[in-house]
Amino acid sequence: MKKNREENKLSAFFAFTRNQIYSQIKRNRWLLPIVLGLLNGLRNATILQGDPELHIMKSANVWDVIFSSLGHTHFVHLVILTTFLYLIGDLLPEKSYGQLMLFRLQSRRKWWLSKMLTLLTLTAIYVVLFIAPMALVGGLAHGWSLDYSEQSFFNRFISGLPANLFFTGEAYITPLDLFAQTLLLIFLALFTCGLFATVITLFTSRSLFGLTGGFTFVFVSLIGNSLSGPPTWVKFLPSYHVANLGILPVRTIPVPISVLYWIIWICLLVSLGFFRSVKQNIFSVAKE
Predict the structure, then answer these.
(1) Long-range CB contacts (< 8 A, 24+ apart) of 26-29?
(2) SS3 20
(3) What pLDDT digit, counting tens, does each position of 92-103 carry?
(4) Preceding amide of 93 cis, omega within 30
(5) Which of 3, 9, 236, 257 is 20 to 30 Å from 19 at the Cα level?
(6) What's the CA gap between 49 and 200, in Å, rounded?
(7) What is the pTM of this model?
(8) What pLDDT, in 10s, does the model give residues 222-232?
């Protein structure tokens, strides 16, 4: 009997999580990252074709199209992060179905864990929906390759690559490894920003406050990163850890340090969420 109860609780947990994910991605607004990925891919591919005013004379490939977006911190902040916050902005307060499901879960901690799993899954879906169309356009327009292009070697600033990539004559990192590092940092940043907004909503019971807090998190970080100098303390701001490159053309902080930075943020926010979820009256009417 006890085993059956545990199986029912586990089944309810996964059913609730699946419903949360489906209720989000079935909305038409989740077409937005696909459209943005396509438009941005077309824009980058067009620029890299060889505008005479930019004096681009070398051939490019799919990596140039990808890194010319993911390699620029302003694009990552103002487009990728803000769009994701808009998409997941109403994950909380809990809807009526979620309130009913809590009876079956019989645990506020499991409820919060389900929310985190939902957010993690939505982050992964968002990254795929945004990157895949951009990579497809880049590959079709400039060709596929496992190596850097001539364009990358002669004009790294347009391609969004580190200025010291070919400092010794050979690239110190392969395109695939650089892409993996960049994608990991952006994924962690997306998940953290989503967590930040969700925790604020959990404390205030207002999704508008959560969205405002998330956007503030992004913009304050970006503005601080743009200060003249920049001061040494800005390295503690998220913007220095979001993309592979920040305001400077070379990476000044090791990638493992940035990963640890995001893990600390995530642990702190998840802990705050667990603390609040135990005390919050989830069954109260959402104040909107």
Answers:
(1) 29/86, 29/87
(2) helix
(3) 876 666 566 666
(4) yes
(5) 3
(6) 45
(7) 0.90
(8) 887 676 666 77
